Amino acid sequence: MIFMENFEQFNKTVSTLFADHGGDLYGGEAITQERHGLQCAQLAENEGAPPSLIISTLLHDIGHLLHDEFEQAQARGEDRFHENLGSKFLGQWFGPEVTEPIKLHVASKKYLCATRPDYHASLSPASVHTLRIQGGPMNETEIAEFEKLPGYEDALRVRIWDDIGKDPDMKTKSLDHFLAYADKI
Ligand SMILES: [Fe+2]
User: Fold this and answer.
1) Which end of the chain is more exposed for a tag (fewer CB within 10 A), N or C?
2) Phi then psi for 32, rounded to 5 degrees?
């Protein structure tokens, strides 16, 4: 069940995080964290995704904004597990419909690399680099376990938008527009 104890607190907390860290570059991509999140959310909205999945997509990388040393850690080849950090943080306001796709969005890349031959070839150089840090494609056992997880299909949708939402020229609606979906969950 999705619960929303305090929409105002959520809105203010997340807006402040984006104001403070949203201008950081998104990994090795030519795009900021905020632009990346907005583009992914726009793609989800364009496909008619439900409010919970739009919020999940908008905030799938919020773990990066919570960790000041993220950029340096990634450059050193360390995995800071931003997916766990982000899903735990959002769990103070939301249920699994929002948090599970975030928790699984890194595993989704490993799943898609193992199950869709054309997917790996489509990844950006920065994404290939992080895939290595994250342990590479799944094996057969990992694939079977992943497909048992509730919500894994939503996580795959977030992952696909995540990979597309890196266009420096894409126009999107505002952060406030997408954050308002939290009140509709
Ligand atoms: Fe992302």
Assistant:
1) N
2) -85, 165
- Ligand 1 midpoint to CA 160 (Å): 10
Tokens linked to 29: 């991509």
Cα(36) to ligand 1 centroid in Å equals: 7
Backbone region of residue 149 per phi and psi (left: phi > 0; alpha: psi in -120 to 50; beta: other values): beta
Entry pTM: 0.87
Average pLDDT for runs of 10 along the chain of length 185: 70 93 80 95 98 98 77 60 88 94 94 92 85 90 96 96 90 97 93
**Domains identified in the chain and CATH numbers:** 7-184 (1.10.3210.10)
Distance (Å) from CA 139 to ligand 1 centroid: 23
Distance 56 CA to ligand 1 centre (A): 11
